[in-house]
């Protein structure tokens, strides 16, 4: 049965819905009152059967730096089955790709009721060099089964961008887990965010030939310098 170590706030989009899901599977929720790498590894050691945990890439980086933060187990234990790493910044996953055993990169919004895509691992990737495996693991992947679709579109024409890994568009969602309205009292905001029948995420991405989505930046986070558009995610990755 799953043993889920909580490093994500349970109030955050209902904790990704997992407190109930774990209980429905007959599993155990291991809760933290405060967040430090020491506490995380102590809980993993205490509950040796931890199978799942989740968090943002910054949390993954935090955990990887554990040996520099004080005494601890000589061999750092980790979840033995599955991890969920959010897509706020791909650099941490890319840098620590092989250190996150079994980690799956996920991506979504509160408006999509939490994670909407997952970077499903392909068996043929196992034979690739470590750098390439980490690069592939940092992608956002495909939509999950409850989401009707996710696409990267030109927000003006609403046409899908080519699957060339180069043409940038906006990530858009549709499905029964997508919000019905931007706000309950702002019809114009709802029309704008749901134009064309798709939820406009405000996130910019490319789509690769194999269909996997890769985030490039959030539209409002792009750095404009001397007329050039600079991706904040690319800066973080470097």
UniProtKB/TrEMBL annotation:
UniProtKB keywords: Fatty acid metabolism, Ligase, Lipid metabolism
Region of interest (Disordered), ranges: 51-91
Question: Mind telling me which Pfam families this protein's record contains?
Answer: AMP-binding
Q: Key word Repeat present in the record?
A: no
Which biological process, per GO, is one annotated for this protein? fatty acid metabolic process
- Domain named AMP-dependent synthetase/ligase: residues: 3-180
- UniProt keyword annotation of Lipid metabolism present: yes
- An MF annotation (GO) of this entry: ligase activity
Biased-composition ranges, Low complexity, are: 68-77
Report the InterPro entries cross-referenced here: AMP-dep_synth/lig_dom, ANL_N_sf
Family of this protein: Belongs to the ATP-dependent AMP-binding enzyme family.
Q: Which PANTHER family match?
A: ACYL-ACTIVATING ENZYME (PTHR43859), BUTANOATE--COA LIGASE AAE1-RELATED (PTHR43859:SF4)
User: This chain belongs to which protein, by name?
Assistant: AMP-dependent synthetase/ligase domain-containing protein
């Amino acid at each position: 049965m799953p043993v889920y170590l909580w490093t994500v706030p349970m109030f955050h989009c209902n904790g990704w819905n997992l407190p109930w899901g774990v209980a429905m599977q007959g599993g155990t929720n291991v809760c933290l009152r405060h967040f430090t790498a020491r506490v995380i590894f102590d809980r993993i050691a205490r509950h040796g059967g931890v199978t799942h945990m989740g968090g943002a890439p910054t949390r993954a980086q935090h955990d990887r730096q554990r040996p520099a933060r004080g005494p601890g187990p000589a061999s750092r234990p980790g979840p033995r089955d599955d991890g969920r790493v959010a897509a706020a910044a791909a650099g941490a996953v890319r840098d620590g790709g092989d250190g996150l055993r079994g980690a799956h990169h996920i991506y979504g919004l509160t408006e999509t009721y939490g994670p909407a895509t997952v970077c499903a691992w392909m068996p043929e990737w196992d034979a690739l060099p470590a750098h390439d495996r980490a690069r592939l693991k940092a992608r956002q992947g495909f939509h999950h089964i409850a989401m009707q679709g996710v696409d990267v579109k030109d927000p003006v024409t609403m046409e899908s961008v080519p699957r060339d890994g180069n043409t940038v568009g906006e990530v858009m969602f549709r499905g029964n887990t997508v919000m019905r309205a931007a706000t309950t009292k702002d019809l114009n905001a709802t029309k704008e965010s749901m134009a064309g029948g798709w939820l406009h995420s405000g996130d910019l991405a490319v789509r690769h030939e194999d269909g996997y989505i890769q985030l490039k930046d959030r539209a409002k986070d792009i750095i404009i310098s001397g007329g050039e558009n600079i991706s904040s995610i690319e800066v973080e990755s470097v």
